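Exercise 7b. Backbone tokens:
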């Protein structure tokens, strides 16, 4: 057991901080962003070791969006100590939501072709799951931007991305991360319900 923990401590630590990140997200606390920054740093290493290059690159995007999210949410803070924010939750019209979904599809196609071509030019092993890697990366990019803008429907996109990612990580034998994404799926459902309730109460 000790040997297993020693071999997987980066993934374990990333999973623990990721759960804390989700907790703060659901509670609408801006502390989610610095915690998310730390989580991304750990998973940058995990995905590089697993040859999931799009997911690895996604962590760089997460590092940057965490900085943006921190300033955007904290700039509308009620209390720095409590981590609360005055930033209102936005709900999208169907037309705008469809545009976000189309953006996800376009990004998936672009990332897929990059994953098929780029590794050979960088002397890297080919991406082992290029389509799955591309979809989860594209969906995560869009969903995280929606979260940073405090858009309610970010949770709906996360539900689909997390379920897909869970199956992908099981196939890669990343069981800790797969279990994490199962929990993510349940927490995304909870997040959607809670944010929607809070929207109704604030009206």
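Sequence design result:
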């Amino acid at each position: 057991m000790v040997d297993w923990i020693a071999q997987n401590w980066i993934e374990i630590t990333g999973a623990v901080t990721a759960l804390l990140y989700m907790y703060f997200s659901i509670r609408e606390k801006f502390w989610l962003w610095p915690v998310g920054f730390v989580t991304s740093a750990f998973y940058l290493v995990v995905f590089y070791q697993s040859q999931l290059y799009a997911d690895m690159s996604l962590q760089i995007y997460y590092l940057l969006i965490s900085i943006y999210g921190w300033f955007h949410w904290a700039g509308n803070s009620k209390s720095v100590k409590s981590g609360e924010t005055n930033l209102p939750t936005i709900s999208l019209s169907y037309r705008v939501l469809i545009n976000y979904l189309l953006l996800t599809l376009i990004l998936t196609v672009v990332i897929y072709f990059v994953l098929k071509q780029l590794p050979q030019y960088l002397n890297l092993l080919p991406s082992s799951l290029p389509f799955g890697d591309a979809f989860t990366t594209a969906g995560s990019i869009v969903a995280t931007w929606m979260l940073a803008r405090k858009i309610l429907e970010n949770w709906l996109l996360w539900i689909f991305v997390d379920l897909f990612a869970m199956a992908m990580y099981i196939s890669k034998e990343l069981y800790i991360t797969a279990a994490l994404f199962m929990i993510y799926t349940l927490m995304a459902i909870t997040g959607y319900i809670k944010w929607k309730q809070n929207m109704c109460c604030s009206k």
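Instructor comment: Residues 49 and 56 are 9 Å apart (CA to CA). The chain has a mean pLDDT of 86.
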